[in-house]
Amino acid sequence: MSTTRTIERTIPALRTVEGGGFVVHRPFPTRLLMDFDPFLLLDEMGPVDYAPGEAKGAPDHPHRGFETVTYVLEGQFGHKDSAGHSGTLREGDVQWMTAGAGVVHSEMPDPEFTRTGGRVHGLQLWVNLPRRDKMIAPHYQEIASGKIPVAVSDDGRVRVKVIAGEALGVKAAIETRTPILYQHFSLQPGASVETRVPRDFRVFAYPLAGAGFYGADRTPVRAQQMVLFNDDGESVTLAAGDEPLEVLLIGGVPLKEPVVRYGPFVMNTEDEIRQAVIDYQAGRMGAITH
Ligand code: FE
């Protein structure tokens, strides 16, 4: 018996202001949905058009116990960290940062971009680490746009960037600590796709642009509404309406472990959170040299 998943519910993203003042659309965590095990947060940054001198970012801050995945759609994001690692992410690039035991980093526009201004649009996903991996050494995987595997449907009307997992027979370049899928589907008007998802994955879609139809009963959902699928099938069906559809499909195997969060630290117990605060204040997560 092969079935395509039905929809449990949809949740509108909340517009909020983060870090140094950048606008995000956040499907979770909000009061409607605290997390989506194994994911802790999804932020759609912008889209926002910055005037010269106005671009915002997130100055120096720590992370421990999880991974941050940054995917740039438009504009650019500069980053710098306490291990001496720095660079610029441009359109289509992905940075998968495993914070593990702790890192201090900044996510700021480069001076040149700040000077000229421009459009910024991107995503940040927080992937929780299992208890056994929370204190591993920090680690980065950076994949330039051109190195991200792409699959195209037989009819040529559906294209998917395979950031994590496998889609339409194409495997991702990024390695994940637990089984994760993260895929960006682009559908031409009227196109549809049924893509396989492992049975034990919890899966959601997050439409970025265009009206689409989701799940077994083709529920219409607009952009910036998170679509939560039930765990009742081996595939997910996505379909575009009269316009092109851009949609992320994200999923993973739930960790089913206690989650204690305190800002940028996500651990299993209150004691581990207290220790994270102590370690950060004692400089054990390092500092950025400016
Ligand atoms: Fe960060």
Write structural notes for this entry.
With 290 residues, the chain is mainly beta. The chain has a single domain, classed as Jelly Rolls (Sandwich). 6% of the residues lie in helices and 51% in strands. It has 2 helices and 26 strands. A 7-stranded antiparallel β-sheet has the order 1-22-19-24-17-14-13, with no helix packed on it. A 7-stranded antiparallel β-sheet has the order 2-3-4-11-6-9-12. The protein is globular. The mean pLDDT is 95. Bound molecules: fe (iii) ion. The site of fe (iii) ion has 6 residues, from β5 and β10.
Helix-strand blueprint:
Blueprint: E1 7-12, E2 14-18, E3 22-28, E4 39-50, E5 58-63, E6 66-74, E7 77-81, E8 86-89, E9 94-98, E10 103-108, H1 111-116, E11 118-128, E12 139-143, E13 150-152, E14 158-164, E15 166-167, E16 170-171, E17 180-187, E18 192-196, E19 202-209, E20 212-214, E21 219-221, E22 225-229, E23 235-240, E24 245-252, E25 260-262, E26 265-267, H2 270-281
Name its key features.
binds fe (iii) ion; 290 residues; mainly beta; single chain; Jelly Rolls
Q: Which radius of gyration do the C-alpha atoms yield?
A: 19 Å
Q: Can you summarize the main beta sheet?
A: 7 strands, antiparallel
- Mean of pLDDT: 95
Structural class: mainly beta
Task: Give the N-to-C terminal Cα separation.
Answer: 59 Å
Helix-strand string: EEEEEEEEEEHEEEEEEEEEEEEEEEEH
| Helical content band | under 10%
* Percentage of residues in strands: over 45%
| Cα shape | globular
Q: Compounds present?
A: fe (iii) ion
Kindly report the CATH topology: Jelly Rolls
CATH superfamily: Jelly Rolls
User: Looking across the biggest beta sheet, what order are the strands in?
Assistant: 1-22-19-24-17-14-13
Determine and state the CATH class: Mainly Beta
Please give the domain count: 1
Number of strands: 26
Instruction: Name the CATH architecture.
Output: Sandwich
Pfam families: Pirin, Pirin_C
Domain Pirin N-terminal: 25-127
GO molecular function, one term: metal ion binding
Binding site for Fe cation: 61, 63, 105, 107
